[in-house]
């Protein structure tokens, strides 16, 4: 019985010793001494900014020559095969259309009123293009200037230039 108590007490002591050792170890592990902060003081050599020398330059007024106005002519797009003229807002758009010989021109009425496509050359072409999408097509097989107008609205004129 006595030996049992000795054994037990020795175990308890051992456990206590182990615990103490563990505590000591954890203490040493956690207590990390902070590194010395080497505060490098910046060398404050405040160099004064260089004095701003404001040199007043003499104002040279150069008289520029008048701008040369170059009139840019829009490139005349010559359409071939097929071309379209819109009757819109009581005008033919484009008002002048240049096409090659053999081109079929189609007029499309975009207005809410009827128009006509009537050649100034009597008997060449005269057609009514009805309101909201009416169309008329004519194939120009000869070079020349073809003026036309709308019989319903004076001043509604157009030209087809065939080259
Ligand atoms: Cu018209």
Give the tally of β-strands.
Answer: 10
- Low-pLDDT sequence parts: 11-21, 23-33, 37-41
Order of helices and strands: HEEEEEEEEEE
Query: Which topology of the domain at 78-162 does CATH recognise?
Result: Immunoglobulin-like
Q: CATH superfamily name of the domain at 78-162?
A: Cupredoxins -  blue copper proteins
Mean pLDDT: 76
Shape by Cα distribution: elongated
Biggest beta sheet attributes: 6 strands, mixed
CA radius of gyration is 51 Å
- The separation of the N and C termini measures 134 Å
CATH architectural group of the domain at 78-162: Sandwich
Report the β-strand fraction as a percent range: 25-35%
Q: Strand arrangement, largest sheet?
A: 1-4-10-9-6-7
Number of alpha- plus pi-helical segments: 1
The hetero molecules present are: copper (II) ion
Helix content: 10-25%
CATH class membership of the domain at 78-162: Mainly Beta
Structural class: alpha/beta
What does this structure look like?
The chain has 163 residues and is an alpha/beta fold. It has one helix at 2-30; strands at 78-79, 82-88, 91-93, 96-99, 103-109, 115-119, 126-129, 135-140, 144-149, 157-162. The protein has a domain at 78-162: Cupredoxins -  blue copper proteins (Immunoglobulin-like, Sandwich). The strands form two sheets. Strands 1-4-10-9-6-7 form a six-stranded mixed sheet, with no helix packed on it. Strands 3-2-5-8 form a four-stranded mixed sheet, with no helix packed on it. The protein is elongated, with a radius of gyration of 51 Å. 13% of the residues are buried. The model is unreliable at 11-21, 23-33 and 37-41 (pLDDT under 50).
């Amino acid at each position: 019985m006595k030996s049992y108590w000795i054994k037990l007490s020795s175990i308890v002591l051992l456990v206590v010793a182990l615990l103490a050792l563990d505590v000591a170890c954890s203490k040493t592990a956690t207590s990390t001494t902070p590194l010395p902060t080497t505060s490098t003081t910046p060398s404050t050599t405040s160099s004064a900014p260089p004095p701003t020398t404001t040199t007043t330059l003499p104002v040279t007024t150069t008289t520029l020559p008048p701008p040369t106005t170059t009139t840019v002519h829009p490139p005349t797009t010559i359409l071939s095969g097929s071309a379209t003229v819109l009757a819109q807002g009581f005008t033919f758009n484009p008002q002048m259309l240049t096409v090659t010989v053999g081109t079929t021109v189609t007029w499309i009425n975009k207005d809410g009123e009827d128009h006509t496509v009537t050649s100034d050359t009597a008997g060449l072409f005269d057609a009514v293009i009805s309101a909201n999408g009416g169309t008329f097509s004519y194939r120009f097989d000869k070079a020349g200037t073809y003026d036309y107008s709308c019989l319903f609205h004076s001043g509604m004129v157009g030209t087809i230039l065939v080259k």
